[in-house]
Amino acid sequence: MKIMSVLGISLLLFACNSALDVQQSYEFDVEVMPLPKNIKQNEIVEIRCSLTEEGNFIDNRYTIRFFQFDGNGKLHLGQDGEAFLPNDRYELPNKEFRMYYTSLGNKSHAFEVVIENSFGRAKTLEFRVNAKSEE
User: Fold this and answer.
1) Over the range 99-120, which residues count as b (16 or more CB within 10 Å of their CB) and which as e?
2) What does DSSP assign to residue 83?
3) CA 65, CA 15: separation in Å to the nearest integer?
4) Could you tell me the pLDDT band of residue 119, with boundaries at 50, 70 and 90?
5) Which of 99, 100, 103, 83 is nearest to 40 (CA)?
6) What's the N-to-C CA distance of the chain in angstroms?
7) Sign of the C-alpha dihedral, residues 78, 94, 74, 81?
8) Residue 21: pLDDT band by 50, 70, 90 thresholds?
9) What is the pLDDT of residues 31-83, one digit of tens each?
10) Rounded to whole angstroms, how far apart are CA atoms 37 and 59?
11) How many Å is the maximal CA-CA distance in the chain?
């Protein structure tokens, strides 16, 4: 009976996996404050964003890309930031950030911003703003 108990306990101990399961990649979301529906030429619109994660892996990094597919404008991170080049990847330094879109034309604008983490998870934000005529 004693041998059976020792054997049972041994099986339980060896059946357990001693390797730690360290999760590095977590789902995330990006919350965006509402934008105005209309924009005049040369007007600047502030886009306030907040990135939230289900978990936190300290070495996870986020990047941002910009795609303009309708209209003409420029987007930059922070008030003094350099304008993003289409499809170039830029590091996102903080989880709370502001982007600024400047209308360079008098037509409607549509663009996407893609935020991606170090593990290939991505969120696409689509923005559409109508042109406002000068009055």
Assistant:
1) bbbbbeeeeebebebbbbbeee
2) B
3) 47
4) confident
5) 103
6) 95
7) positive
8) very low
9) 999 999 999 999 999 999 999 887 665 678 899 999 999 999 999 998 888 99
10) 37
11) 95
Tokens representing residue 85 in the block: 């080049």
Q: How far are the Cα atoms of 67, 87, 106, 108 from residue 124, in angstroms, in the given order?
A: 10, 13, 25, 20
Q: How far apart are CA 40 and CA 36, in angstroms?
A: 11
Distances (CA, A) of 84 to 65, 81, 87, 112: 8, 9, 8, 12
- Cα–Cα–Cα angle for 48, 84, 36, rounded to 5 degrees: 35
In the structure encoding, which two tokens stand for residue 3, read together?
């041998």
